[in-house]
Each structure stands twice: as structure tokens, then as C-alpha cells.
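hey m, so remember when u said the C-alpha cells were messed up on ur end? i reran from scratch. heres the input so u can diff it against urs
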Amino acid sequence: MIDKETKDLLIRYAAQYETAAFIDGDPSWFMHQVSGGANREAMAFLASSISYGSRPQFMPKIEWMLDRAGGDADGWVRSGRFEHDLPYGDNSCFYRLFTCHQMHLFLRAYRQLLIEHGTLGAYVSKEARDGSGAVEAICRYFAASGSSGIIPKNTQSACKRLCMFLRWMVRSGSPVDLGLWAGFIDRRTLIMPLDTHVVNQSVRLGLLSGKGTTMTAARRLTATLSEVFPDDPLRADFALFGYGIHAS
């Protein structure tokens, strides 16, 4: 059980930070720079795929993809134009542990998914009925397509980047999230995007007892946060972001 003081704190920070101002400096900014549902979905997926580590390091890499796509992320992938920018066999570093070759394989698998299903959302709508199923379906497709590293091969880890992407796609009525998939995934089934920062904040607040970044821990934290936001547990993502700023 969460005590009243902590509940009030989370509710207050969620209201304070889930605003349009949150977008500035956040990887979600990029999906708001393009137009059209398919294009926004694609830009969001590309942005989420490398959103780990230091923002000053990964944000320019997302900007690079947006620039190479000329604002048309969906077309850049669907047409195969990415192959010129990220050649097959180029093992130079793209970002941290990801090589240009790995990015090529990731985008090639994504292109095949678009050819087969139209959009990532169309694929997920056929394969999943909730947030957990959506994460599993995306992992399964990319693992089967020979793409490794960019998308987790399974859901043993917390799959933080995928869970963040799903927050963007599913939550509607938000100045930050797009809600493009709200019609087939219930936001109450989403899983908290869990990384070391969220874990540390959650432990300080007594929401978690351990420091592991596993899917089990992410589910446990989500269930706990459902006590505060039963209709929309990932609203707490903004609350923990705000708490991290004020507690640091």
C-alpha cells in the first residue's frame, strides 16, 4: 500500500509535468515534428529505438535520422532510402553499442514489417490485445527477422524503450503522448518504462524494494502505481520524472 503523502506527491508531480513543456528536450519531441499518423508512428519508433544513455548523446542521433528522412520517417524506411545512409556491412559506431550495420538490419526488418502489414500499429493490432502482448509481439517479429540488439529479443529485460514507445502510442488525451493505438490497446495494460533512474526514484519512495531492471520489476511497479492512477498507471511516469528533478 502507498501512503497518502506519497500518493499526493505523485498526483501533484503528474499534473505539474504532463504538459506540452515536457516535450522540449525529451525524445518524444521528434514525433511531434512530423505530420500524419503513419509518419508520427514511424518517427516515434525510430526515436524510442536508441533512447538510452545520455540525452545529449542520443538526441543528436535521432535528429540525424529525422534529417536524413527529410521529415518523412515512414517513407525513409518504407522506400529503403535508409540503405544509403546506413549501409549493410558498415561496422562503424552509430551510437554506443549500436553499429551502422545493426541499424541497417533493424531498419531492414522494420521495412519488411511495413511491406507486410502497412504499419507497425496494424501488425500489433493483429498480434496483441494488451500492453504485454504488444511488447512480446514486437520483440518476436524483430528476433525472427534477424535483427538483434536494437529491439530486445525477448521480454526478460524491462524493455524500457518499447514500453516508452507504447506509452506514446496508446495514451490519449495527453499533451505529450499521441494515442494512435488507443483503439486497440487499453492504457491500463501498459507497463512502466523501467530504467535505473526510475528504479532509484521508486526505491526512494518505497514503491520498489529491489534495484533490478527486469520485466518482473516493471510489472510490479506498474501494479503498485495502479493504486494511485487506476485508470492510467503510466501517468506516474511523469510523476517520477518530476520527483527525480526535485529530489536530486
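this time it looks ok to me. Residues 113 and 141 are 8 Å apart (CA to CA). if urs says something different then somethings off w ur setup not the seq
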